[in-house]
């Protein structure tokens, strides 16, 4: 009978010691799989909190991966890895998406200049903002604003 087992990560770091009372190595494997799903649930909970944080703070011009990692007390690489594993997109792409959606709102709903909108979402160089905006939307910020005005979705 298998009474105690130390479950270890590949690095050799002890993960858990359990009194399993298992009758076979297969049962030990079942307990280990349960532990892995518990760790997975913990990662999902973190990523849910990260997404909520980004969604609530996407208007902050200095929002970036390092700011999010610092806020949650995790390394950038660990956060990036967990985010990608849970969402199938990178955290940088998610932040960028939220910022450009906000830029679209600002262009549609305000009369802020393109330069001001770029600055608000964290781009100090207008040309860089225009280039990234065009890559995201397929048109320049000025064209986007004009298109939104023509469709009646503005101010």
What's the number of helices?
7
Structural class: mainly alpha
Helix proportion = 55-70%
Rg over C-alpha atoms, rounded to the nearest angstrom: 23 Å
**Whole-Å distance between the termini?**
73 Å
What is the N-to-C succession of helices and strands?
Answer: EEHHHHHHH
Shape: elongated
User: Segments where pLDDT lies below 50 for 5+ residues?
Assistant: 1-22, 24-38
Main sheet properties: 2 strands, antiparallel
Q: What portion of residues belong to β-strands?
A: 5-15%
Main sheet: which strands, in order across?
A: 1-2
Describe the 3D structure.
The protein is mainly α. It is 65% helix and 10% strand. A two-stranded antiparallel sheet has the order 1-2. A hairpin with a 5-residue loop joins strand 1 (2-8) and strand 2. Mean pLDDT is 80; it is low at 1-22 and 24-38.
Task: Tell me the layout of helices and strands.
Elements: E1 2-8, E2 14-22, H1 25-57, H2 65-72, H3 76-87, H4 91-109, H5 114-120, H6 126-137, H7 141-150
Antiparallel strand pairs: 1-2
List keywords for this structure.
single chain, 155 residues, mainly alpha, two-stranded antiparallel sheet, 7 helices
